[in-house]
Amino acid sequence: KTGLVTLDPGFVNTAACESDITYIDGEAGILRYRGYPIEELASNSNFVEVSYLLIYGELPTKEQYEDFADRVRRHTLLHEDLRKFFDGFPRDAHPMPVLSSAVSALSTFYQDSLNPFDQQQVELSTHRLLAKLPTIAAYAYKKSVGQPFLYPDNSLGLVENFLRMTFGFPAEPYEVDPTMARALDMLFILHADHEQNCSTSTVRMVGSSEANLFASTSAGINALFGPLHGGANSAVLEMLEGIRAEGGDVDSFVERVKNKEPGVKLMGFGHRVYKNYDPRARIIKKTADEVLEKLGGDDPLLDIALKLEERALSDDYFIERNLYPNVDFYTGLIYKAMGFPTKFFTVLFALGRLPGWIAHWREMMDDPARKISRPRQVYTGYAERPYVPMNER
Ligand code: SDX
After folding, report:
1. What value of ipTM does the predicted structure carry?
2. I need a surface site. Which of 55, 146, 329, 342 has the fewest CB within 10 A?
3. Ordered strands of the 22-25 beta sheet
4. pLDDT lower than 70: segments of the chain
5. Alpha helix stretches (DSSP H) within 156-278
6. Which of 21, 30, 196, 228 has most ligand 1 atoms within 8 Å of CB, for mutation?
7. What per-residue confidence (pLDDT) applies to 295?
8. Can you tell me the distance from the alpha carbon of 218 to that of 366, in angstroms, rounded to the nearest whole number?
9. How far is residue 354 from each of residues 62, 103, 187, 194, 359, measured CA to CA in Å?
């Protein structure tokens, strides 16, 4: 149509974005939050501390940590009128649109913390969002199973509180399983940020118009919902269950993938940046055995996953395309062993990714050069042409 178009260097440069938050080396399989290797944070830190690190850029002192944890804890309750939103959602609704709707509605209930250029309001919206998203997620689960909602118990930590609101009952005491809490805390750390992925770029893009933190995060939740992004962890379980339903024949499934059968992909494999093993998948695989043994006993789907991975890693089709397990390949098995239904796995991804979204939104807001993100395009349509009256077409 318009012939070849050459890109000027300026165009290419505007495509990249600068950030101090997360470093990824896709070839070497390296992931660091504010310079700290993900392996060290997963082994030594906790999700609240990593949230502080991502948002403020440094590991907190004991006093800073306790003050931050206390400020977040104070905001776990939802406004009673916001709780009523859940009465209106259909019981079989997917929880991700429920989450994005409730987060967007936070802008209507907490209007005293919307100004992105008032530091106090930014701090307040940061604490409110970190505290309320677990409550919203737990209520979305309770709505889906028709059980009464539990108010938060602020004597518990963030992850324990979420597990209790999700799996506890008003009629009887609920003891949080420490193995489950530690495993979920570690999984949240591994999901906490991943530089300019689809959902984080969405949060930055929406925030670049000076939209408030709740509105920008709601957009990020919708981007994460997609099966090629955050929806992949649920899609992995559906894929494994499909293979099991067909008698567990991994080889014939792999052949279908290689034949590029429409809609048949090796979910949980491949990555836009990692052309090596995703370092998060390596950590998760290591803990999957331990966690599954303690929580869920031997899961036949784990055997299928291990066979699938072994088969793919030795097959030229996948090797030539740099297709390795990503963060989603094993997470679903652990979430299933914890008792979460498959369609809630992406909600757990959102809970983990939240501090990353907040850190990027704040970084972009603090950037004096920030202006509305306006990607340029390469026009490939028709050159100018005259209008043709309908009776001549
Ligand atoms: C996440 O960006 C992030 O950081 C995301 C994330 C985060 O933390 O935010 O890491 C989280 O989203 C992880 C990815 C989860 N998605 C999935 O697991 C879905 C399955 N994966 C694919 O959709 C795919 O691998 C992508 C989209 C994730 C990445 O695609 P790429 O690397 O850009 O590869 P491509 O689409 O350019 O394809 C290259 C080739 C193609 O074959 P050919 O045309 O060359 O013959 O690889 C093939 C593709 O068909 N291919 C796959 C495949 N992924 C790519 N073939 C089978 N199964 C797959 N999963």
Report:
1. 0.95
2. 146
3. 22-25, 30-33, 36-37
4. 1-16, 296-297
5. 158-167, 178-191, 198-207, 213-224, 232-245, 250-258
6. 228
7. 77
8. 20
9. 23, 12, 13, 11, 9
